Amino acid sequence: MKSVVKTFSLQTKQDLEIINITEIVKEAVASAGLTIGTVHIMTKHTTSGITVNEGLPDIEKDLLEMLERLAPRKHDYHHARFLHSDGQMAVNGYSHLRSALLGKDTFFPLHDGKMVMGSRQTIYFVELDGPLHREFVVHVLGE
Prior knowledge:
Strand content: 35-45%
Distance between the termini: 5 Å
Radius of gyration: 17 Å
Number of strands: 10
């Protein structure tokens, strides 16, 4: 069994942003040279998410609006406190909750060297606290 891990960087441009990373992931899988196994995609941050949905602008907009409704920026979050580890006030409780709603990762089977995906499935990196420099990982495991 072989394990290939690749880390990719993004510079997000907005506080709340959805970025299609499907082609980046497919290229990483192809370059791994494996034919059967699994593909795991993971964000390295607690205020971002990875999700899969239909790749349409209206779905993207609906997803972002849903996150704003479910975890609004203006709310009395317990996380709004001084963090000694950061030396500053935490003001992004909503971002952490939005990340918990989306999740940090997704998996796909790998068969005949390609991810097994639905024809409309799109892999998204979702920025929830930007703009920031971000990283996500693609792990291809198999033979």
